[in-house]
Amino acid sequence: MTASQPLAVLALASGSGTLVQSILDHAGDDYRVVGLIADRDCPAIERARRVGMPARVVELGGDRDEWNERLGAAIDEAGADLVVSAGFMRVIGPALVERLRGRLINTHPALLPSYPGAHAVRDALADGATVTGTTVHHVDAGVDTGAVIAQRVVPVEPGDDEATLHERIKKAERALIVEVIRAWPRPGRGEN
User: For (6R)-10-formyltetrahydrofolate, which residues are the binding ones (predicted)?
Assistant: First the structure.
């Protein structure tokens, strides 16, 4: 790949696919989306298929090691420069994380290291936080413990509940992930 070619991005998702949709909507000269992998049949798969993007499901079945092997093979087939966990609600095994080191990133609905895990918005509200936000970070062997790449602050407003706060975080998250992908170093342009 030359520096003038767009970055090849593969998305991983488990749910509605709003992050995937934002990534798709902003693809262009900086990056192209080469596929989507989900861990189950979900609306993200349909979003990808509607625009003719390769999409497949690698369901969690059998043991975790075997699932990670199938997931790794599917990622390899896509030929991506960058793998974006965009609402992918599975923990990827340490061997696959290590193999993808430096090119596997995740979005998280909190300002890490605060509120890691699957219930970040609920946890921020329960803690009485006045601000929270979104983080894009490298994936490592822990849960939401990788090095932070970028963050965006979202204030907690009076009367917020989990749904209203999460929706505002998602809006910030969709913009932030596109900014990170657009700025991602291409081979030949430096290392990340």
Answer: 64, 106
Active-site pick, 108, 137, 138, 166? 108
Active site residue 119: no
Contact assessment for residue 68 and residue 93, using Cβ atoms and an 8 Å cutoff: yes
Annotated binding residues for (6R)-10-formyltetrahydrofolate = 64, 106
In a domain, 192, yes or no: no
- In the chain, the number of structural domains is 1
53 phi, psi to nearest 5 deg: -85, 135
Give buried/exposed letters for 9-24 (b at 16+ CB in 10 A, else e): bbbbbbbebbbbbbbb
pLDDT in tens, 26-67: 999 999 999 999 999 999 999 999 999 999 999 998 799 999
Instruction: Tell whether 74 is covered by a domain.
Output: yes
Q: How far apart are CA 174 and CA 128, in angstroms?
A: 25
Domain range for 156 is 7-183
HSE-up of residue 72 (Cα within 13 Å, Cβ side): 16
Residue 91 lies in a domain: yes
Q: Which CATH number fits the domain that encloses residue 25?
A: 3.40.50.170
Q: Most distant CA pair in the chain: distance in Å?
A: 51
Average pLDDT value over all residues in the chain? 94
Q: Can you read off the two tokens belonging to residue 74?
A: 């599917």
Span 56-99, pLDDT tens digits: 999 998 799 999 999 999 999 999 999 999 999 999 999 999 99
